[in-house]
Inverse folding.
DNA sequence: TTGTAAGCGTTATCAT
DNA sequence: ATGATAACGCTTACAA
């Protein structure tokens, strides 16, 4: 009867060695397929390990090896629909190589970010996939030093860390050009936080598209959002308001710099009984699951979220394997996804 | 100038002790506020630690303490909209108490579940929050033994593990009763996998509601789904099909046992130009973010996902602190959220 | 091929 | 109040 020793008593390599009638050194070699071990010894060790339901203590091992086989994923909030796919990508790629991933939600608070980094250093994680928010790059490196490798995802920093991102300028350009190609000229933007490169870059793409089409940039058409649904609603509200008061401020389309804000904007538009896309067209950014179930379904700029996660983890492993590699940077391409929220232009104020 | 020693050289307690001019024992006591240490010694140690940017090696500590201050969250897929909130709850509650959480995605594969459990045992995690799928309870305990505490979330098992769940029978009852109260009598169900207690229980709630209302249970109105969007679409397709062929099979409402399937069903209904809720009413389960942006917005049974996560982690910590506690079980209440996808009955076949 | 023993960074015991 | 020192579980020279 094979019970597999379910009693849970933690066995050490000493007990395995003893049962196998060899020294711990030999047991270790056998268990790790390292150095010389006779076939007989090896099989006796393996059998003993099986009988005792031996599970190596990786913490103990990390003490000698200096490696923990653990990485961390530090992001603002898994609950933000952008991140689960990234997280899944990271975890898949990491576990494929035998690494575990510790999840940390910072809410974008520099304080929490710093706390987590300190904790991670104490844990001697081998690497960190980091979507930071406000923590200055210098601060990051002052905390983790070179105790672990780090790869930035969807962020850009002065510090020489590896980066995985998508081309946000291009994405902003794609979204805006799409609107322009539909005949829109009065295009508002609900931007992300301008303190974030993602926020800035997408806005830059918007300006580039305008410029290329010869449409003058109108400051009053941009309102800074916060990448959150409620923020999007509020921003759209502002836009509608200002449009009411000042017909010169009318708009026929809006580019919301992420889908969450686009959904919020949609809500505001609906409340004011402004038809989308016939009166106001709208395009979002990210292509989260929500985007394809709203009514109208949201046109958006898709980011390869899962791939970003996978790439980030792989890049991190590479960096860990070779700390002297030159700085790596991977810029993925965003992709325009046209659905129902954008349509040929028909002028109308908000 | 305070640099905080960003050089990243890992410092040990020996170096701290040396700089402070004390023994490691004293340094350890000072650092941990344990045992007797003179004020002077303590402050010298603390200062030394600061100067050297000392970060304790928790892996080394766990070697002596036997505790890793790490728990794991094992679930099918973070990418499933039900889980991020749970994950966030677990992480918040855990980190509040100084625990880190390792994330594991199993895709509901017994093989992956077993692999992860073995890995987690090797890591000596103090506890596991587990949303298992098919792994028999006995198998779980044979792998982890009592090497870590475990709390089941949203699952029920024969093994005597602690549990955090919501009352699924009640939830199914709520959803169905709501439909019945609207005058529906031909109510189809798109159930979850019947191998899962969640699947079974919600279906039971459906039957209970029918029974209480004196509506005969009609086997042909239940089709087993898989909790996924595409599965929901396919199931609805089947229902429509069968309804076409056999007028006696007509239905005026459907209870989809989770929102993802409800959204899929919505899609199918839309493709067939069947109006929701006027021709067919539909109610989902979970109240994920998607539910409030579909058109029509989805009526659903909400589960307190975040709270489930928090509770699970807290329960786990309690269990870890006291392995001899009697089995704990927390059953939260689901809540009916009425939106636009349900409406007074008007008969119509699918 | 195998075993002894040192060492990894901490904590805890036991003297002092 | 403080300091040696053993112990935690493992790997790895170095010997044998």
């Amino acid at each position: 009867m094979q019970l597999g020793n379910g009693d849970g008593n933690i066995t050490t390599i000493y007990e395995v060695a003893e049962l196998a009638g060899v020294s711990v050194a030999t047991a270790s070699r056998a268990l790790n397929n390292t150095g010389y071990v006779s076939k007989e010894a090896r099989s006796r060790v393996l059998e003993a390990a099986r009988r005792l339901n031996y599970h190596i203590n990786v913490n103990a091992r990390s003490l000698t090896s200096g490696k923990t086989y653990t990485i961390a994923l530090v992001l603002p909030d898994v609950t933000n629909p952008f991140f689960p796919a990234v997280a899944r990508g990271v975890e898949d790629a990491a576990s494929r190589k035998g690494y575990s991933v510790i999840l940390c939600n910072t809410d974008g608070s520099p304080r929490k970010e710093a706390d987590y980094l300190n904790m991670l250093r104490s844990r001697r994680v081998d690497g960190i996939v980091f979507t930071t928010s406000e923590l200055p790059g210098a601060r990051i490196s002052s905390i983790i030093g070179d105790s672990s490798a780090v790869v930035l995802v969807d962020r850009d920093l002065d510090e020489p860390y590896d980066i995985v991102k998508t081309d946000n300028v291009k994405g902003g350009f794609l979204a805006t050009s799409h609107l322009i190609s539909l005949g829109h000229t009065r295009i508002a933007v609900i931007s992300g936080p301008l303190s974030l490169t993602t926020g800035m870059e997408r806005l830059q793409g918007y300006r580039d598209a305008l410029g290329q089409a010869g449409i003058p940039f109108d400051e009053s058409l941009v309102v800074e959002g916060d990448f959150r649904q409620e923020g999007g609603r509020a921003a759209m509200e502002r836009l509608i308001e200002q449009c009411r008061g000042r017909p010169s401020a009318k708009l026929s389309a809006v580019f919301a710099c992420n889908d969450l804000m686009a959904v919020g904007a949609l809500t505001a538009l609906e409340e004011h009984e402004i038809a989308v896309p016939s009166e106001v067209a709208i395009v979002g950014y990210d292509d989260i699951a929500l985007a394809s179930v709203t009514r109208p379904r949201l046109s958006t700029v898709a980011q390869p979220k899962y791939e970003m996660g996978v790439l980030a983890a792989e890049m991190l492993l590479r960096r860990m394997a070779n700390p002297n590699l030159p700085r790596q940077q991977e810029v993925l391409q965003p992709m325009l996804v046209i659905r129902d929220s954008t349509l040929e232009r028909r002028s109308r104020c908000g």
About this structure: Chain B touches chain A through 58 residues (CB under 8 Å).
